Amino acid sequence: MSWRHWICDARTGQVVCPVDIPNFQWESTGRQQSFSTASREMGDRSASNLTVPWGAVPATGPVQRNRLLDPTRRALCMCWKDDDTSDQIGDPILWGVIGQRQDRQADTSFPLESPMDLLSQRIAVREGTFHDGYSPDTVSYGGLSYRAIMSDIGQMSTDRKQGGTLPIDWPYTHERGTRRKNSLHAWNVQNNKADKLLTDIANLINGPDFAFEPYLADGQHIRVRFIAGSDADLSLYAGTTPIELSYYPGAGQLDELQISHAAPIQRWYASGAGTDEATITAYAEDMTEVTSRMDAQILRESTYSDTDTENVDVLKKHVLSRLEANKRKLIQITATVDFSDTAAGGTRCTPATLRPGMPATLHINGFPSLPDADYPATIMKISGNQTSKAQITFDVMDNPIQ
User: Fold this and answer.
1) b vs e for 375-389, b when ≥16 Cβ sit within 10 Å of the residue's Cβ?
2) Please, is 195 exposed, middle or buried when counting C-beta atoms within 10 Å of its C-beta (0-12, 13-18, 19+)?
3) What is the DSSP letter of 163?
4) H or E element: which one contains 316?
5) With contact defined as beta carbons under 8 Å apart, do 165 and 226 qualify?
6) What angle do CA 156, 204, 187 make, to 5 degrees?
7) Can you give the pLDDT of all 402 residues of the chain as single tens digits?
8) Which residues partner with 107 through β-bridges?
9) Whose CA is closest to 178, among 140, 142, 203?
10) Which DSSP category does 193 fall into?
11) Which of 118, 177, 242, 386 would be a feasible disulfide site paired with 145, CB 3.0-4.6 Å?
12) Kind of pairing, strands 301-305 and 267-271?
C-alpha cells in the first residue's frame, strides 16, 4: 500500500508522468447541510506542503523542470495504490492544479489548488455578455433540480468560457425539478464567483451535499466528477450501506477518539441587500429550551449577513438553515484510522473506501462522556500525510444528552 502521484495536464486531465513526493499533507472535506455549524468551502479537497526533490522530477534542465511543474499548465493527482491491485496509477483521491511554488536549491514545494479554489477564480457570467458601458444580461433558472442549476453554473464558468476548460464533468445539466434560482445579473459580477454560488445553493435548507471526485477516465486521463445529492435525498451516497467502525479503549478501527461540544444558538438575526433602514432583514428563533423547562438553557444569539441577497424569502431560508443547524446541543467526533485496518465485513479502510459524505455506523463503547451505543454518522473530513494513517472528522450530530 502506498501513495502515488501523477503530473497531469490541467485542462485535459491527460497523465504526463509520475513524480515522487516524499513529504506532504492532504485534506478531503464534504458536507452534511442539516448539521453544518460553520461556514466552510464545501466539497473541497486539497493538499499542502508538497515537497518535491529536484531529483524526483523527470527533467534535464530548468526549462523542462519549470514546464513539468508549471502552475499555469499542470495539475497533480494523488492516488492510493493497494498491494492487491494491478492498476499502476491507483485510485485517484485528490486532484488539483499546482499552486505557486517555492523553489530552493534541493527541492521545490507547493500546495494544490482544488476545484473549489479554481472556481473561486471564475465568474458565472455568459461569455460575450459583459461590455464596456452597460452589461444588462441576466440568467434565470426554473423547473430544474438544484444540482442541475449548480451544473449549469459550473459549465458557464468553465466549458463555455474561451480557454476555460477544466477536466471537470457536470453531469446533471438540464435535470428537471421544481427548484428555481433568482437571476444572475452580469453587472453584479462581484457576487457571481462560481464557488460562492455553488455554496450558497448548498447552504439553503433543502440544498444538496456536493463534492468533486477525481476518477480514472481511461489509462491516460484523470478527470474530476461533480457529484451532488438529489432534491429527494440531499446526501451524496444515498442508499449506500454505512461502513461500520468501532471504538473501544485500545481496540477497534478508531483510535485517539475525541469529542468536541457546541452550545445551541436559539435566535438568529439576518441582513441582506440594501443600505441603512432600507436593508432587508429576516429573523428566526426556537426558544423551546430557553423558556419551557425548569432547568432552562441560557439564551445565545447570532447574526448572519448576505449583502447580495435581495429577496426576503431567500434570506429567510438562509437564516432558517442556520437556526436548524444550531438550535440543539451538538457534538463532533474525530478519530484516527490506519489504512492497513479493515472495517466490519472485511472492507479495507483506505482513502478510496472512506470518503467525505459516506455514511458510517460508529460502535462506541467505553468512552467516559458518551453512552455506549451505535451512532449513525457521516464522514465530513479526512486528513493525513504521506503515512498510512489519517484523522477522520465526522459531521456534527445531536448530543444524546440534551
Assistant:
1) bebbbbbbbbebebe
2) buried
3) T
4) helix 312-326
5) no
6) 40
7) 789 999 999 999 999 999 998 888 888 886 433 223 333 344 556 666 688 999 999 998 999 999 999 999 999 999 998 766 666 888 999 999 999 999 999 999 998 999 999 999 999 999 999 999 999 999 999 999 999 999 999 999 999 999 999 999 999 999 999 998 878 999 999 999 999 999 989 888 788 989 999 999 988 999 999 999 999 888 888 888 899 999 999 888 999 999 999 999 999 999 999 999 999 999 999 999 999 778 899 999 999 998 878 889 989 988 998 999 899 999 999 999 998 887 767 777 888 888 888 999 999 999 999 999 999 999 988 988 888 899 999 988 999 998
8) 53
9) 142
10) B
11) 177
12) parallel
Which conformational region is residue 321 in: left (phi greater than 0), alpha (psi within -120 to 50 degrees), or beta? alpha
What span, in angstroms and rounded, lies between the C-alpha atoms of 360 and 373?
A: 14
DSSP 8-state class, residue 127: T
Please give the full DSSP string across 13-80, using - where no structure is assigned. Answer: -BEEEE----EEEEEEE---GGG--S---TT-EEEEEEEEEGGGS--SSHHHHHHHT-TTTEEEEEEE
Q: C-alpha distances in angstroms, 101 versus 16, 49, 84? A: 19, 10, 35
- Distance linking the first and last C-alpha atoms of the chain: 43
C-alpha grid cell, residue 393: 472528522
CA distances from 361 to 56, 185, 225, 243, 327 (A): 41, 44, 26, 6, 24
Q: What is the pTM of this model?
A: 0.83
CB atoms within 10 A of CB 214: 25
Burial of 13 (0-12, 13-18, 19+ CB in 10 A): buried
Q: Please report where in the chains the cell 485496518 appears, as a residue.
A: 341
Residue 106 near residue 53, CB atoms below 8 Å: yes
Please tell me the total number of residues recorded for the chain in this structure.
402
Return the amino acid letter for 300. Answer: R
Among all chains, which residue has been given the C-alpha cell 467516559? 368
The C-alpha cell at 75 is 495539475
Please tell me the distance from the alpha carbon of residue 316 to that of residue 115, in angstroms, as a whole number: 29
